[in-house]
């Protein structure tokens, strides 16, 4: 999840929904797309299916 729209390489803004957090608070999802990151070794990789949540102040990456 990312709150910075400018971080997205591409984004599907037609994707809408809500995310519910552990404290039962909810935030609206206003798109889904890919973000390009630079690794410590200099490589660049994409993170796919990242939700755009404009109200988020911090980015969250969950793997599993």
Give a description of the structure:
The protein has 64 residues and is mainly β. It has a domain at 1-31. The chain contains no helices and 5 strands. It has strands spanning 8-12, 17-20, 26-29, 32-38, 44-51. It has a 3-stranded antiparallel sheet with strand order 1-4-5, with no helix packed on it. It has a two-stranded antiparallel sheet with strand order 2-3. A hairpin with a 5-residue loop joins strand 2 and strand 3. The two termini are 14 Å apart.
Question: How are the elements arranged and paired?
Answer:
Layout (H helix, E strand, L loop, with lengths): L7 E5 L4 E4 L5 E4 L2 E7 L5 E8 L13
Antiparallel strand pairs: 1-4, 2-3, 4-5
Basic shape: globular
Q: How much of the polypeptide forms β-strand, as a percent range?
A: 35-45%
In total, the number of strands is: 5
Distance between the termini: 14 Å
Please describe the biggest sheet, giving its number of strands, its sense, and whether it closes into a barrel: 3 strands, antiparallel
Topology as a string of helices (H) and strands (E): EEEEE
User: Roughly how many Å is the radius of gyration?
Assistant: 12 Å
* Helix-residue proportion: under 10%
Mean pLDDT: 94
Helix/strand-derived category reads: mainly beta
Strand neighbour order, sheet with most strands: 1-4-5
Q: Would you identify the regions where 5 or more consecutive residues have pLDDT less than 50? A: none
The number of helices is: 0
């Amino acid at each position: 999840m990312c709150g910075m729209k400018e971080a997205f390489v591409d984004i599907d803004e037609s994707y809408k929904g809500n995310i519910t957090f552990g404290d039962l608070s909810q935030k609206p999802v206003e798109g889904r797309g890919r973000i390009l990151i630079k690794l410590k070794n200099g490589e660049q990789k994409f993170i796919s299916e990242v939700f755009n949540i404009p109200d988020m102040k911090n980015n969250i990456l969950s793997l599993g």
